[in-house]
Amino acid sequence: MTEKQRAYDSAQTRERILSHAKALFSQKGYKGVSINDICAATGLSKGSIYHHFKNKEDLFVHLAEAAFVDSWKDWDTRSASFSSAVDKLYAYSELFADNVDLSLTKAGEDFIATTGADSEAVQKFGAMITGYVQRFEEIVREGIERGEFKQQEPGEMAFALLSSYSGLANNTRILDKENVKRMYRKMTDMLLDGIRK
């Protein structure tokens, strides 16, 4: 077997682990999944799992990072056609509504609640969330600079807006997709009533 073939096989194994782990975390939450569960789902040994990831925390952080990267790629594509911050906020609420059923989000909450705040993995996860809020802050800052939004601290506004969308996500899981989108649009109307100039 050539070096190139080994690297390809290694990459495929890593993707297999990530794919099965994502399904398990989405289904059972972070706390409900063990390395043994991942081994059973992938048909791999613990040694194989640990060859690619330090531990379950490291594996989850890799999944979260990929999810954030995909989310921003999707956002960058969607937002390119909007010129106003108000339109971008509506577009973002639609993106959030489209992804509200991603139960990996709930697994992330479980991860934070069950993993020690001092762990390296939680620190990395926290940095990802901070980066997410900062990206969203760009929309708010743009709205303030263009005179669309009231003059307030952009970071606090971004955090409050994202928290509102996340809170709504916890309460719309029983609704069909059209009603979820309608609720996110309504939430955006109400939020804009509070921040629009």
UniProtKB/TrEMBL annotation:
DNA-binding region coordinates: 34-53
GO molecular function terms noted in the UniProt entry: DNA binding; DNA-binding transcription factor activity
Annotated InterPro entries: DNA-bd_HTH_TetR-type_CS (IPR023772), Homeodomain-like_sf (IPR009057), HTH_TetR (IPR001647), Tet_transcr_reg_TetR-rel_C_sf (IPR036271), Tscrpt_reg_QacR_C (IPR013571)
HTH tetR-type domain span: 11-71
GO BP, one annotated term: negative regulation of DNA-templated transcription
Alphabetically ordered keywords of this record: DNA-binding, Transcription, Transcription regulation
Protein name as it appears in the record: HTH tetR-type domain-containing protein
Native organism: Paenibacillus durus ATCC 35681
